[in-house]
Amino acid sequence: xxxxxxxxxxxxxxxxxxxxxxxxxxxxxxxxxxxxxxxxxxxxxxxxxxxxxxxxxxxxxxxxxxxxxxxxxxxxxxxxxxxxxxxxxxxxxxxxxxxxxxxxxxxxxxxxxxxxxxxxxxxxxxxxxxxxxxxxxxxxxxxxxxxxxxxxxxxxxxxxxxxxxxxxxxxxxxxxxxxxxxxxxxxxxxxxxxxxxxxxxxxxxxxxxxxxxxxxxxxxxxxxxxxxxxxxxxxxxxxxxxxxx
Length: 245
Ligand code: GLP
Description:
Elements: H1 5-22, E1 31-35, H2 42-53, E2 62-66, E3 68-70, H3 81-88, E4 100-101, H4 110-123, E5 129-132, E6 154-157, H5 160-166, E7 180-183, H6 186-192, E8 196-200, H7 206-214, E9 233-237, H8 239-242
Parallel strand pairs: 1-2, 1-5, 2-4, 5-8, 8-9
Antiparallel strand pairs: 3-7, 6-7
Helix pairs in contact: 1-2
The site of 2-amino-2-deoxy-6-O-phosphono-alpha-D-glucopyranose has 14 residues, from α5.
């Protein structure tokens, strides 16, 4: 728990850098990193970019999988998660383009798109580290309330509160927010990842964070509760998210 969001971001960025650097670079397998969008991880991305510029970390041997993408937005749409990731992170680091994986929200065959994504993740073996954010109602990626523990990558319908929360990126117009998205499932995250890290910032996340840690296990109204099932989860948050003044 950090008093300032910036310090929380720096701590998590350094943690990720350490994990990448500790990983044997001569290994045949690349370091596999799961990534989120949202405003919370932006500070982490900024710190990772800075460290990459300073030569403290390289992404040459890193493969990434993003958590989710809106259905119906093209990669060039400035609110697509594809655009966000390139704009905030990938365009500024030394990662080979072929190492980046993001679900295609324009795919004509959603089922195949999701199945291929799962297969691609599997083809790399384990995800070394999955970073996530937390929705105000406890969603993880776009796994909304009611998502099953065994869920895999699929099409999801966004709930009203998510559409409302995300409308801030669509000129506060809820009608412009896509109603559906593609998202990795709870099982995709939990069962494939050696480590899960969450960045949780701001007072709006207080309730969800409290639930995540103290809620009754397997209450599917709060998908982040499933994290209690995993043996290696690190939550990095600021004072407001932790309910400390
Ligand atoms: C979106 C994303 C989530 C993210 C959440 C919180 O709904 N699909 O992956 O965790 O927003 O975003 P923010 O960090 O901006 O509050």
